[in-house]
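Re: the 198-residue chain
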Amino acid sequence: MTKRIIGLTGNIATGKTTVTNYLANAYNLPILDADIYARDAVSLGSPILGAIAQRYGEQILLPDGSLNRQKLGEIIFNCQDERNWIENLIHPYVRDRFLKEIAQSSSQILVLVVPLLFEAGMTDLVTEIWVVSCSQEQQLQRLIQRNHLNREQAQVRINSQLSIEEKVAHANVVLNNFSTPEILLKQVDVALTTRSSD
């Protein structure tokens, strides 16, 4: 039997973490998280962190030598070319980690959480695509609250991703996070059980 590999995506602050935690806790599914691999890619002493420090100077590092994420965020969310440069370093590393983990896993169902599934060209790694969606106003409010950003900063981060409409158009499953977490998670139950019996 071939593995069922769910690519869970959506835009920033749409509710991916809620869905991820539920799949892990309620269904005990292995979660492979692109954000964790991306953090590993720039860990202290890594070649990628070295390349970043060489490009932006010591100011991009914290006193302990680790990456100053806030400073990097200011650079890449305000300049498309710099964001592309960083992503070209990190995405291949993340893809390799995914391939290794998929090959080593004995589980029949895996969940790959990839916020930039489309942007990073990783759709070929999964057998189905789930997109968590909400209105842009809900997204803005959640992001402002969660990341302590002003409206303009939050909008810049939202604009840096492919629009949610484009992602929804390519989804096998759309999870609408417009109302309560309970309603969202019921959709997850349905998607998991109906698609596994396809």
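The two ends are 13 Å apart (CA to CA).
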